[in-house]
Every structure is written in C-alpha cells, then in structure tokens.
Design a protein that fits this description.
The chain is mainly alpha-helical and 288 residues long. The radius of gyration is 19 Å and the shape is globular. Helix content is 76%, strand content 2%. α2 packs across α4. It is built from 13 helices and 2 strands; from the N terminus they run αααααββαααααααα. A two-stranded antiparallel sheet has the order 1-2. The longest helix is centred in the N-terminal third of the chain and has 31 residues.
C-alpha cells in the first residue's frame, strides 16, 4: 500500500509539474494567440532570479515564490512594449521575434552566469511513507500548481481585469469602442503570462537545477500541453497535463525518463491526430 501511495504521488507530481510550466504559455498563447518561443527562457530567468536571491541570503520562500514572478513580469512588460505590440496579428513575425529573443536571453545568461549549473536548495525535507521516503518538495509543487491554476481562474473569472482581458482578446475593436484601453490590457496580459512563467521557473529551480539552455526542455513540453489542450486555456491545460503527465509517468515508471519523454511525444501526436483542435476543441467548449 505504501508503494502504491508513493507511485501515486509521483504520477500526480508529474501532472502538476506539466501544468505549472504550461499555464503561463496557455495565457499568452490561448488568449492572445501569441506563439511565444521564449517561454522556456522566461522560466529560466525566473529560476536564475531565485538562484541569485538565495545567493544574497534572501529567505528561500521569498526567493522562489515572490522574486521570480515579479522579475519576469517586469521583463515581460518591457518585451511587450518594445517588441510584441508591433507584431500583434502577425504570427510568423511573432515566432521569429520570440525565437530570436530566446537566443538573445540564452546568450546573455551564459555570458553573465557561465554554462555551469546553479543550485537552489529545496526548502522541505523528504517525508516518510511507510518504509519509503517521498519528496516533501514534490508535494509542495503539487500544492503550488493547484493554487496557481485556482488563482488564474479567480483572476480571469471574477475580477474586472479578467473580464476586460477576456473581452479584449475576443473582440479588441468592440472593447476599444466601449472605452477599454486595449493597449494596456494586452501589455498586462502578456506580463501576467510572463510572471506565471517566472513563478514556474522559481518553483521548479530546486528540482531541475538552473543553467542557461534548460529552457529548451521546458518549451517543448509546454507547447505540446497547450496545443493538446485546445482553445480553452485553463481547462485545456489541466486536461492535457493530466493526459500527457500520466503517459509520461507511466512510461517512466516501467522504463526510464528518456522513454517517458518519447511516450509523451507519441501521445501528443496521437491526440492531435484524433483531436486536431485539442481536447477543449471537442469537449468542454464553453469552459475557460
């Protein structure tokens, strides 16, 4: 029984990790239709901000939960003002710009920090599950993923900002005609998505380690999850994370993490072949 609980925690942790690293991209891509190829590097900047904060002896919880989202949200706001706002509605140009931005960020991080791995200590010890031990920080990742998704839902569903953002993304001209400052809404939404990426980077830093090119491993899984989820950013992310996370963890459990990644990719190809518009393109169409 203890072993079953341990395996169950690993499965849920895999799903939660996938959801956490995808939710920021889901906001930017699902709502704004921006293919942000620098999403992985936004996460890396969140991880580095956490690492730098811990080196300056900032409280570990502040370093991984407060510093990363604020830092990356500010950077995201600057990126929107300087680059993205000139490219709305031009998908190819947006992809090229964010791809170039990702290379620029990797180069800057390598120049500043070098290409070695930085460490961020895990603030929670392991916990005992019968005769076994489970990662206490892994449980915290599950908790943070749940809280983050609930928080995003609350912002988008219950606040005036969420209402204006959803209205602007659906029909910007109508929103502008009604007096909404659509430029500010676009900038705020992009910064919000960037801040979520930073938060994910900060939370995952103690698990994954931090080095400049790790964003490449984040972006692939995040895009697969968001595209597999379909047009509803929140429900799509949750449902696709559940499917792909389960497939990944199952293959990892019976073989090794490499085959887990291969199984995730094969699962994504099959899902998109069967559901070209994603899970929420076929089901949960009215969901957020």
């Amino acid at each position: 029984m203890d072993f079953v609980i341990l395996v169950g925690i690993d499965f849920v942790n895999g799903i939660a990790t996938l959801a956490l690293m995808s939710i920021g991209l889901a906001v930017v891509f699902g709502m704004m239709r921006i293919i942000n190829l620098a999403h992985g590097e936004f996460m890396v900047m969140g991880s580095y901000s956490a690492a730098v904060a811990t080196h300056f002896h900032v409280n570990i919880w502040i370093a991984i939960l407060i510093v990363p989202p604020i830092t990356v949200a500010i950077i995201g706001l600057l990126v929107e003002r300087v680059i993205m706002r000139h490219l709305y509605g031009r998908m190819v140009e947006t992809m090229l710009a964010t791809w170039g931005l990702s290379l620029f960020i990797v180069g800057c991080l390598t120049m500043v920090f070098g290409d070695h791995t930085e460490g961020v200590p895990a603030p929670l010890p392991a916990i005992k599950v019968g005769d076994y031990q489970a990662s206490g920080y892994g449980l915290f990742v599950i908790f943070m993923s749940t809280v983050t998704i609930a928080g995003v839902y609350a912002v988008l569903r219950t606040t005036r900002l969420g209402l204006l953002a959803r209205g602007t993304m659906q029909n910007a001209e109508m929103a502008a005609a009604l007096g909404v400052d659509t430029s500010r809404i676009y900038a705020t939404t992009f910064a919000f998505g960037a801040g979520l990426a930073g938060l994910a980077g900060g939370v995952l830093a103690p698990i994954s380690g931090v080095f400049p090119s790790i964003g490449g491993s984040y972006i692939g899984r995040a895009f697969i999850t968001v595209i597999g989820g379909g047009p509803a950013p929140l429900v799509g992310t949750i449902s696709a994370s559940a499917v792909f996370g389960f497939v990944n963890q199952l293959a990892t459990f019976v073989s090794n993490p490499v085959y887990g990644e291969v199984a995730l990719l094969i699962g994504a190809v099959i899902l998109i072949r069967l559901l070209p518009n994603g899970i929420t393109g076929r089901y949960f169409r009215r969901a957020l």
